[in-house]
């Protein structure tokens, strides 16, 4: 591969997400970087030597047709539509998981995952990302920094409270009580919100990805 390459390193910690960008001359140069040290610096709020803060949010859209044809068929049009919006850095990527939710998207540095996106939603989605808000909750698949029950708890709390600001939550804690997970959400105003959840079958089936046989669908639900 010829020419300079762009490299992003980031952390998606709740309330402390950060992303830095740098240019490297070749893939071999990547082997010389102390990436763990740079991650530690980001988490500590320090300046990462040789790197800059991106001017725009980074958006990755899965278009990996080799893994699942739906990601290419449905993801590419979404990526193209988002690339036409101002204020975003949009890239097509190889794999984000959750093929049955195509088109899927990862927003960085916050680590928000969206699914079942359609090209006509690009303007509203871009506006939400630029404005520091969560997009439609029925498209939200979760946050990479949180466990599955904590992701579900955040979505439920946002739906009940109507809070869509990305920084609305400051901290999340969880404990296990048998088959139940107790998630405590701490909002930025210092209030706490407790939700009890358990994984349950929804009584329906869906293919886990294109071409596969339907399987039982489960979800974290209020206990």
Plain-language structure description:
The protein has 223 residues and is of the alpha+beta class. It has 5 helices and 11 strands; from the N terminus they run ββααβαβββαβαββββ. It has a 5-stranded mixed beta sheet with strand order 4-3-5-6-7. The longest helix is centred in the middle third of the chain and has 15 residues. It starts with a strand and ends with a strand. The mean pLDDT is 93.
Helical content stands at: 10-25%
What is the overall pLDDT average?
A: 93
The whole-angstrom Rg is 19 Å
Question: What is the H/E order?
Answer: EEHHEHEEEHEHEEEE
Provide the structure class.
Answer: alpha+beta
- Strands of the largest sheet, in order across it? 4-3-5-6-7
Most strands sheet: 5 strands, mixed
Cα separation of the termini: 52 Å
Principal-axis shape equals globular
Number of strands: 11
Please give the count of helices. Answer: 5
Extract low-pLDDT stretches: none
* Beta content: 25-35%
Quick tags:
223 residues; globular; five-stranded mixed β-sheet; 11 strands
Which secondary structure elements does this structure contain, and how are they paired or packed?
Elements: E1 5-11, E2 18-24, H1 27-30, H2 35-43, E3 58-62, H3 69-83, E4 89-93, E5 105-108, E6 112-114, H4 122-130, E7 140-143, H5 148-161, E8 169-177, E9 180-187, E10 192-206, E11 215-222
Parallel strand pairs: 3-4
Antiparallel strand pairs: 1-2, 3-5, 5-6, 6-7, 8-9, 9-10, 10-11
């Amino acid at each position: 591969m010829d020419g300079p390459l762009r490299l992003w390193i980031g952390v998606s910690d709740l309330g402390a997400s950060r992303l830095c960008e740098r240019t490297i001359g070749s893939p071999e140069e990547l082997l010389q970087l102390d990436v763990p040290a740079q991650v530690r610096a980001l988490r500590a709020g320090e300046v990462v030597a040789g790197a800059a803060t991106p001017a725009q949010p980074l958006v990755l859209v899965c278009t990996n047709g080799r893994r699942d044809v739906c990601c290419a068929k449905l993801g590419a049009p979404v990526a193209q539509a988002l690339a036409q919006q101002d204020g975003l850095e949009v890239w097509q990527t190889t794999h984000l998981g959750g093929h049955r939710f195509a088109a899927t998207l990862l927003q960085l540095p916050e680590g928000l995952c969206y699914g079942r996106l359609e090209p006509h939603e690009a303007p509203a989605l871009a506006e939400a990302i630029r404005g520091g808000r969560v997009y439609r909750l029925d498209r939200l698949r979760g946050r990479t920094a949180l466990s599955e029950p904590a992701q579900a708890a955040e979505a439920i709390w946002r739906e009940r409270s109507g809070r869509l600001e990305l920084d609305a939550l400051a901290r999340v804690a969880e404990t296990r009580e048998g088959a139940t997970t107790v998630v405590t959400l701490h909002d930025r105003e210092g209030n706490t919100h407790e939700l009890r959840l358990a994984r349950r079958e929804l009584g329906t089936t869906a293919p886990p990805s294109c071409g596969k046989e339907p399987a039982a669908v489960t979800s974290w639900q209020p206990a």
